[in-house]
């Protein structure tokens, strides 16, 4: 199954956030103290 554009964008954004030192986490399992920057994306 081919990923939807939103899923592809989310993966790229998460990759860029990680490269910048952020931690991209799911809202239901987020640990806000896991890193200096924690991104909690909105559900798709």
What do these coordinates show?
- The chain is of the alpha+beta class and 44 residues long.
- It has a domain at 1-17 and 34-44.
- The protein is 34% helix and 14% strand.
- A two-stranded parallel sheet has the order 1-2.
- The longest helix has 15 residues, at 5-19.
- The protein is flat, with a radius of gyration of 11 Å.
- It starts with a helix and ends in a 5-residue tail after the last strand.
- The mean pLDDT is 85.
- This is Type I restriction modification system, restriction subunit.
Strands, helices and their partners?
Elements: H1 5-19, E1 22-24, E2 37-39
Parallel strand pairs: 1-2
Kindly name the structural category: alpha+beta
Overall 3D geometry? flat
Count all strands and give the number: 2
User: Which ranges are low-confidence, i.e. pLDDT below 50, for 5 or more consecutive residues?
Assistant: none
What is the CA–CA distance across the termini? 17 Å
Series of H and E elements = HEE
Mean of all residue-level pLDDT scores: 85
- The percentage helix is 25-40%
Kindly estimate the percentage of residues that lie in beta strands according to DSSP: 5-15%
Q: DSSP helix count?
A: 1
The largest sheet, given as strand count, sense and whether it forms a barrel, is: 2 strands, parallel
Radius of gyration: 11 Å
Strand order of the largest sheet: 1-2
Organism: Thioalkalivibrio sulfidiphilus (strain HL-EbGR7)
Protein name: Type I restriction modification system, restriction subunit
């Amino acid at each position: 199954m081919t990923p939807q554009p939103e899923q592809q964008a989310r993966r790229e954004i998460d990759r860029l956030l990680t490269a910048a030192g952020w931690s991209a986490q799911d809202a239901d399992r987020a640990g806000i103290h896991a890193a200096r920057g924690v991104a909690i994306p909105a559900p798709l």
